[in-house]
Every structure is written in C-alpha cells, then in structure tokens.
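Incident log, structure service

09:12 report received: a user says their structure output differs between two submissions of the same chain.
09:20 pulled the input from the user's history:
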Amino acid sequence: MLLRKKLGCLHAHHSNIEYIEQAFQNIEKVELVHFVDPGLIQQVSKGTDGLGFKVKEQLEWMESCDMDAILITCTNYIALLEEEQLELSIPIIKIDEPFFETVCEEKQPQTILFTNPETVEGTMNRLQQYAILHAKSNNTKVKVIDKTFELIIQGKRDAYNSAIIQALHDVAGEQQHIAVSQLSMVEAARQFEKESTLTITHPLKSLVKFVMRSIE
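09:34 re-ran on a clean worker, output below:
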C-alpha cells in the first residue's frame, strides 16, 4: 500500500487551487488538502499590523489537521510570516523559494512581472535575501501590470489573462528574460509561451521537485 504524504496548501484565493492540482496530478505520493483564506488579502491593503499572527494561527491549525508538510502559495502570506516566530514540527514550503532558485540561475538581466503591487516589496526583499544567502546573482527589475489584480479577485479570469499576455508582449519587445511572480499569472504565462518563442519563468516550473525534496 502506498503511503501518501498529506500536503496542506494555504491559498489567498480559490483560483490557486487549480494550478497546484495540475502541478501534482501525476504525483501519487502526495495528497493535497486545500485551505483558503481570501480575507487576509483584503486586510493587507489596510495595513499589516497583526496579520502575521493571523497567518501563524492558520498554519498551526493546519498542522493540527495531521498534515505532513505545508505549502504557502501566497507571497503576501510568506512576507507576513517573516515577522513571526513560528515553531512547527512539519516542513513549511514557501512557493517563492523554488521560483527564486530558478530566477537566480539566470545570469542575464530579467524582468519580473507582478499584478498585485502589495506583493512587490516583500517578494523582492526575499529574493535579495535568497541571492545573498546562496551567493547567487540577482540581476532583476520589476514591472507591475497596473489595475489588473482586481480582475482575478472579481473572477474575471479571461480579462486578467489577456492583460498579462499583452504586458508580456510589451516587455518581450525589450527584454528576452522574463518571469511572472504570482501563481495566478501562470496560465497567462503558459499561453504566451505557446504564442511566442520565449520561455517564461513562473512559480510552478520547479515547484514539484522542490516539494518532493522537502518532504521525502
């Protein structure tokens, strides 16, 4: 009998569930259990005081549900967690870490696209820390696709993806190395790859291998 590992996935929006399910669809060793808390994203725009404790509370609750590991798919949650002292007995996997690993392997200048401006500072600070800690290069600049993130929050996925694809075409005219930072941007990045000759770095490209290394 195959002993499966239970991976608890903490999402800020239900739309992220599909991406993680697709990534792990052929991994029989892992059972995914999803936890969604969209309210936290709404609160971030009002200020972050006390929100790190809320994330910590949520992770402790997930651990009590007999998870073998936890995957945090929201970069806002990850940034908030940096402020807290967290002591869990199971691995905490942050979705931006395999992404940072891939980004830092690229030596040429690259542009990282965001749709949610609230995630930029926390993500880029963590990227810089990762590069220093692992003695890697970090030759990146940021572009925010304005007035786009609210589309996915409103459930307007097609409009959201179209805005991202258009931005990718715009950036591709001046930059050959491009990454999208958020899980919600993966579908658009994949569509763009089919339409062009460029490869877009995104958070799912090396996630499964990273997770399996962490829980085996």
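09:41 both user submissions now match this output. Likely a transient worker issue. Closing.
09:42 reviewer note: The longest strand covers residues 5-11. The first helix runs from residue 15 to 23.
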